[in-house]
Backbone:
């Protein structure tokens, strides 16, 4: 299953699909079709990673909680160490997760892959 989201550059979009897919749903990866200049993941006000230059590569979120940081291309990621107890199968828990973007004037398109094994409810209409 792929969830498609969009929004204006410079906005924040919720990646919390727990109401639609179940409380313990995790995100496996995401990819920008139309990328903002930069983006970062947050849980609450706390960044899970530093700002990353936007591009259209798939961002792998399948690293276990013991991996403190990793690189994909020239992009460094820092694991969500404060919330690693929330990670059951090496994805990132969707609950209270936000993607924040930077840029002006255009719209980004984001594809999100929930980890199928963590989905507990049938997908309903996402708002």
Residues:
């Amino acid at each position: 299953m792929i969830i498609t989201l969009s929004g204006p550059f410079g906005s924040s979009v919720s990646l919390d699909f727990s109401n639609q897919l179940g409380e313990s749903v995790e995100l496996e990866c995401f990819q920008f079709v139309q990328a903002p200049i930069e983006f970062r993941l947050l849980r609450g006000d706390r960044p899970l990673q530093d700002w990353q230059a936007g591009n259209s590569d798939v961002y792998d979120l399948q690293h276990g909680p013991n991996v403190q940081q990793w690189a994909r291309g020239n992009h460094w990621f820092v694991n969500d160490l404060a919330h690693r107890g929330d990670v059951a199968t090496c994805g990132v828990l969707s609950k209270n997760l936000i993607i924040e973007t930077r840029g002006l004037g255009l719209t980004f398109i984001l594809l999100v892959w929930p980890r199928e094994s963590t989905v507990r409810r049938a997908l309903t209409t996402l708002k």
Q: What stands out?
A: Helices lie at 18-21.
